[in-house]
Amino acid sequence: MGINALLERSRTLATPGLRAAVDRLAPPMDTVAAYHFGWIDATGRPSAADGGKSVRPALALVSAEAAGATPETGIPGAVAVELVHNFSLLHDDLMDGDEQRRHRDTVWKVHGPAQAILVGDALFALANEILLELGTPEAGRATRRLTSATRKLIDGQAQDISFEHRERVTVAECLEMEGNKTGALLACATSIGAVLGGADDRTADALESYGYHLGLAFQAIDDLLGVWGDPEATGKQAWSDLRQRKKSLPVVSALSARGPAAEQLAELMAADVKKSQQEFEDFDEEEFAARAALIEEAGGREWTAAEARRQHSTAIKALRGVEMPEVVRGQLIALADFVVVRQR
């Protein structure tokens, strides 16, 4: 099964569960969530908007197969992980001031900040409810992994925000933040299906290690797209991470380098910290383009691409300790390869 077929399978199997979960929400939260998932437009009419890549649900379904279970066994885990992921997106868009996601206005922009907060909270609650309703020991184990991953995700978002107001962040601090913010939930996605399928902790932990390092590779690519991504592909503004003063891997690695470009970048970013958000938002495109050029000249772009490849390799190595059908191993490798070559 190719990567497109894997992702399409995850959408086919997980979407009914997602829709059923959203249907539990009280109005208008159900409508707001449906808009966020791309099922309706801002006026409430049915829509076929981009609902995301479905990488996390795909990983949950394949992880169930890695444990010798059917992919359907992993559906509650796939739904729960996707609900938590979208809880984080709703809140992140508001905190970051992002007005566009997947080529559409974000929820807070259309429905207001209060609804973005409430619907995000509701999705998180639904995720745990869906797992616990299974009433099995495996469901309890899966819920513990999901709640632990969610706490780490929130820790990572708090770290990310705090970095925006600091002149300097180390590469180690950045990797820790990204391991929390992205790695933890992908780690959960790649173990939750296996846990629901009856896998022991050794197998689940090995799959989780694969997912954690895959998450770091995923975020490294996301960081590259956040600076140099094509807005037509990403659905976000050009230089989106620079506009938000993100201390992402390209920025942090460039600042840790030596040479005139790193020094000039450090001077600019030190001055940026002292500017108000409004002053910063008033920058023209050339200001952000200049910063991106300095990051690249200082080696930040090349270092981040190499780090994505390194984390991808580490993820694949983690699979060596897991006995599974070779076709399933091939699917996990294909999903890892997809993460490091994507353009959005």
Automatic annotation (TrEMBL):
<dbReference type="Pfam" id="PF00348">
    <property type="entry name" value="polyprenyl_synt"/>
</dbReference>
<dbReference type="InterPro" id="IPR008949">
    <property type="entry name" value="Isoprenoid_synthase_dom_sf"/>
</dbReference>
<dbReference type="InterPro" id="IPR033749">
    <property type="entry name" value="Polyprenyl_synt_CS"/>
</dbReference>
<protein>
    <submittedName>
        <fullName>Polyprenyl synthetase family protein</fullName>
    </submittedName>
</protein>
<comment type="similarity">
    <text>Belongs to the FPP/GGPP synthase family.</text>
</comment>
<dbReference type="InterPro" id="IPR000092">
    <property type="entry name" value="Polyprenyl_synt"/>
</dbReference>
<keyword id="KW-0460">Magnesium</keyword>
<keyword id="KW-0808">Transferase</keyword>
<keyword id="KW-0479">Metal-binding</keyword>
